[in-house]
Amino acid sequence: MKRTMHHITVAQAIVECLKQEQIRYVFGVPGESYLPLLDAIYDEPSIEFISARHEGGASFMAEGYAKASGKCGVVLATRAVGGANLAIGVHTAKQDSTPMVVFLGQVNSRFLGREGFQEVDIEAFFRPVAKWTVEIREAERVPELVQRAFRIAKTGRPGPVVVSLPEDLFRQTITEAVIAETHAPKPAPRQEDIRNIEGRLERAQRPLVIAGGGVKWSGAQRLLRLWAEKYALPVMAAFRRHDVFPHNHPCYVGHLGLGAPKAVIETAEQADVVIALGTRLSEVTTQDYRLLSPGQTLIHIDIDSDGFGKVYAPDIAIWADCREALSRLLDIAVQPSWQEWAAERRKRYEQTAALPLEKRTLHEAVIASLGRHLPKNAVITNDAGNFAGWLHAFFPFGDGHTYIGPTSGAMGYGMPAAIGAKLAFPDRTVVSLSGDGGFMMTVQELETAARCDIPIISIVFNNHMYGTIRMHQELQFPGRVIGTDLGRVSFARLAECLNGCGFQVQTEQQFTEALLLSLEAKKPTVIEVLTDPDHISVAATIQDLRAKRKS
């Protein structure tokens, strides 16, 4: 469908493009360089501007919203200062393959190149971390290039696009603006490709599927489950793509993330045919690019052909949308002979994912309580940090969009991403997990959540340190602590100062009581979990690390 509009301002044309993309929320911090665009949004009742406390928080909100809603995240900011602040969200969207469009007000066209107030070459600044960057100089090209920005953000491997708009451009009038729908192509595999996969699987004895974000973006989770069930295929989740496959399913055999259990890695190493489905086979997923061996057959199916052979040369490379590929793979003529091996690997995974019933650490108790009391469709986001190891290892993720995490490992992500997810799913419970280090980086966005009536639940594991770095410090320089100790902050009280609710807990019972109250709260809530600093990871304590180093 196309619409033609006459004699509208540049700002109005951008809003019309947002409407065409069915964008409900845009995130940002107001700036004088793009005030006409804010004013045009004011006149459009279908779009709400979420004013954040920091552009980094706004970009994380947009990225989380995009992951949850399946639409492009949209961020607005001003010039170099706003752009620099939100660059962390652009980098996250690039590494996580998340569609995002960033509109940056630029200095007046007359001042470009003169090092004007807050000027930077925005195209050059963002080119290394964005999928595409463009600075628009002519009003008549705004509809064309803004729609191109959305198309590029959504097409192929999704990613962030940055659009620079000189402030004098906004007030110019466009004689004729054509606003059209932008569709992302869905390439399908050739019949020859399907036959090649069929032939490899017929000869396979231990096949394994590694499923990534491409499965989620194409909406192919159900097809993956049907395919796995029909051919008894064991399935692993790529790094921080937990909800790509239900964990209680007999075909699920683990998550290839940071600190992946030995049994899970062994499953991947034993496989003779590996089908990488919608994953770029990242550093973490492949355990520092050491997971796969030349003796294994690699079938790589992805929407991004640039990823083929970047690390591992595939025996079969198929450029296709995961949904289109799986719909055709459901009809291959293969009789599985690997059921016994698959069942054994499932059993080994179950052993690694079982929470201890007695002598639980507080981290384990929190995950157990979340598993018992959260609604089945609750959405969990997480920040970067070792606390997430317990979530990754033990939480039983189910069907649907229930997990949002940064494969970029960005600190400060969890709580703002939860705000974006809650806007996408207003009727679902949304919970973020953070450490005290990461939470403090974007804690100001709790006020945004309170002001905008976005009742999220934030769980903060407070051990008064940058725990992940402390772990590496203890491994490499035991006992020589520098820079990783943090001050004592009461996040429960801080939440109340930012117009939310706060609880501080030290036991499983206290946590469960706080969680049940938080589920009924009508405003953002923080549950501060005071954890033992010695419990540095799922597998070790600080004392363990020091003893190991000495031995």
Automatic annotation (TrEMBL):
Name the PANTHER family on file: ACETOLACTATE SYNTHASE LARGE SUBUNIT (PTHR18968:SF120), THIAMINE PYROPHOSPHATE ENZYMES (PTHR18968)
Q: Where does the record place the Thiamine pyrophosphate enzyme central domain? A: 199-329
Does the record carry Signal as a key word?
no
Q: Which organism is it from?
A: Geobacillus jurassicus
KW Cytoplasm (keyword) present: no
Which named protein is this? Thiamine pyrophosphate-binding protein
Query: Which InterPro entries did the record assign?
Result: DHS-like_NAD/FAD-binding_dom, THDP-binding, Thiamin_PyroP_enz_cen_dom, Thiamin_PyroP_enz_TPP-bd_dom, TPP-bd_CS, TPP_enz, TPP_enzyme_TPP-bd
Which family is annotated? Belongs to the TPP enzyme family.
